[in-house]
Amino acid sequence: MDPENIEKEAIREAGEILKAGGLVAFPTETVYGLGGNALDEKAAEKIYEAKGRPSDNPLIIHIAELSALDKIVTEVPENARKLAKKYWPGPLTMIFHKSSCVPYGTTGGLETVAVRMPNHPVALELIRAGGGYVAAPSANTSGRPSPTCSSHVEEDLTGRIDRILDGGPVGIGLESTIVDFTEEVPTILRPGYINQEMLEAVIGPIRMDRGLISADSDVKPKAPGMKYRHYAPKADLLVVEGSPEKVQEKIRKLAKEKVQEGFQVGIIATDESADCYPLGLVKSIGTRKDEESIARHLFGVLREFDDCGVSFIYSEAFDTPQMGQAIMNRLLKAAGQQKIQV
Ligand code: AMP
Ligand code: MG
């Protein structure tokens, strides 16, 4: 479906599926979502089942109108309203105290609820057609990289859901930024396209969840989903940080060792560095001149390596200016936090 030219009949049908308690995968600007009626406990259950997702990992409720917010939360702090005004529709999720109409099945048993208004015409029309409240985690099998095009959804969920709306490849490619408004100081639980600086420009100081930045692995992230390894590649993934020359030198050395031992090796490089690696299967993730290209291709590249049977993957680090924190958060999760500094 062309997002600029919505097929009304397809949306209406998909909306009926949602209203009847079924599941519809749909494009958003971040990644593809797997939607079910957020106010229907049984639909939430089906989402967990289709994804194989642990049921303590709460779902984000997607809305299409700001006025829909009041029904599902007890209170919206002034600063949250400011962020909504600036960044909704957009890649920002906010957490509030839930009202009684939100089932615990949707919130993983929590008293709080995560809400977002996505910036994608297909998503917005589907939410309206489906009754206004769509619970939608990423439309992947739990543990695999989030889907950034409809073929990823097909790969993971064919036969397990009722419909996929194909709106082409997504724009951003990383999941939304999550800000928790149930803490005394608003707190980022998951970094995304909208970074700390962009949030603080609107509402002043906010905090980063200690579980995200602490080197101490005993400090657990507050968002239940952030404690899971997002992606367990068949291959062993290691991230190498440092100056470009040193990183390239180290990856060449590591790749050579493994190739000599008889292993197949994958390398995640950029357009600028791809030619610097004579050994291994080299994939460029994008160009360092455009960090959005790196974010957009990250999950897809991880999926590609899964399909080609390498035993070890070495990746450059991507500490880019705006989205570096989000990109590195996802990459290190995929790597099970394995990184070295050179
Ligand atoms: P996904 O739906 O795949 O984008 O993942 C949703 C993320 O939001 C997971 O990391 C969840 O743990 C997190 N989340 C959703 N609701 C809440 C909540 N009420 N409190 C804290 N984290 C939440
Ligand atoms: Mg997910």
Describe what you observe in this structure.
This protein is α/β, with parallel strands linked by helices and 342 residues long. The chain has 12 helices and 15 strands. It has a 10-stranded mixed sheet, with helices on both faces. The protein has a 5-stranded parallel sheet with strand order 13-12-14-11-15, sandwiched between helices. Strand 9, helix 8 and strand 10 form a beta-alpha-beta unit. Helix 1 crosses helix 6 and helix 11 packs parallel to helix 12. The longest helix is centred in the C-terminal third of the chain and has 17 residues. The radius of gyration is 20 Å and the shape is globular. The mean pLDDT is 95. The chain binds adenosine monophosphate and magnesium ion (MG). The site of adenosine monophosphate has 21 residues, from strand 5 and strand 9.
Task: Map the helices and strands.
Blueprint: H1 8-19, E1 24-26, E2 33-37, H2 41-51, E3 60-62, H3 69-72, H4 78-87, E4 92-97, H5 104-107, E5 112-116, H6 121-129, E6 134-135, H7 150-157, E7 163-164, E8 177-180, E9 187-190, H8 196-203, E10 207-208, H9 210-213, E11 236-241, H10 244-260, E12 265-269, E13 281-284, H11 291-307, E14 312-316, H12 324-334, E15 339-341
Parallel strand pairs: 1-7, 3-5, 4-8, 9-10, 11-14, 11-15, 12-13, 12-14
Antiparallel strand pairs: 1-2, 2-6, 3-6, 4-5, 8-9
Helix pairs in contact: 1-6, 11-12
The average pLDDT is 95
Q: What share of residues are in beta strands? A: 15-25%
Low-confidence parts, pLDDT < 50 over ≥5 residues? none
Helix share of residues? 25-40%
Secondary structure tally, helices: 12
